[in-house]
Amino acid sequence: MGKVISIANQKGGVGKTTTAVNLSACLAYYNHKVLLVDIDPQGNATSGVGVEKGGVDQCIYNVLVEDASAHDVLTSTMVENLDAIPATIQLAGAEIELGPTISREVRLKQAVDKIKGEYDYIIIDCPPSLGLLTLNSLTASDSVIIPVQCEFYALEGLSQLLNTVRLVQKHMNHRLMVEGVLLTMFDARTNLGIQVIEEVKKYFQDRVYQSIIPRNVRLSEAPSHGKPVILYDPKSRGAEVYLELAKEVIANGERVR
Ligand SMILES: Nc1ncnc2c1ncn2[C@@H]1O[C@H](COP(=O)(O)OP(=O)(O)OP(=O)(O)O)[C@@H](O)[C@H]1O
């Protein structure tokens, strides 16, 4: 059975999509069968793996709102071993359209459970909110990776996120756990970055990944070429560190098993 991992933080611009795209590609590089699910209406994970949003016929919206099956909407990508379920701007209406629906928090889980057996990892890129789309993602997941940007207010808002995780654990999904906290956009030239690392490690202790994602221009350029960084510039520091992260995620799963 595949492991389902949400990449979540309601704060915007902390590196969720960059992590979802590059962790997925790196797990696939290590010969794991991976499905990347984009549940963010911005659709950046979709274009980040080279899927043209303009050419998408059906997306995650059709799964959540119209009961399409995951098989109907998934597509292969240019990365070997990596499939994707795309999102387009149509998804922006889903929260409102699902408003009165019964079991609206379990729509994604119902779809994902049916294809879990075909993948080793299913990685879900969440939007920057704790609304219905993120709730669907946490309800469908075994665990959550929380990217935290190395900046002054790094820990702000995390108690709200952890509270949401606890509520989902209690009411929707008992097995949900925090897979790990990932420090992103670290700039070694500033003292602030080092202080943030210490602060986050004090709070989350051994749940913080050893791999710390640096600020790396190749990581920010790769999406405009529709490629994960291991294809865009495999020798870059960004590619190296996401490969290290993938190894940690794999090792973590083996420890738990
Ligand atoms: N390690 C990094 N080095 C340089 N740029 C980065 C890095 N990580 C992310 N970025 C850039 O920062 C911006 C925000 O990153 P990203 O889209 O991954 O964040 P997000 O949390 O998914 O955002 P949103 O909340 O809007 O969904 C993007 O332009 C991305 O290319």
Describe the protein in words.
The structure is a single chain. The chain has helices spanning 16-29, 44-48, 60-66, 70-73, 94-97, 107-115, 132-140, 158-171, 191-204, 217-221, 229-232, 237-256; strands at residues 3-7, 34-38, 75-76, 82-85, 121-125, 143-149, 177-184. The chain is α/β, with parallel strands linked by helices. The chain has one domain (3-256): Rossmann fold, CATH 3.40.50. It is built from twelve helices and seven strands. The model has no long low-confidence stretch (mean pLDDT 94). The longest helix is centred in the C-terminal third of the chain and has 20 residues, at 237-256. The structure holds adenosine-5'-triphosphate. Residues 12-18, 40, 42, 44, 128, 184-185, 213, 215-216, 219-220, 223 line the site of adenosine-5'-triphosphate. This is Sporulation initiation inhibitor protein Soj.
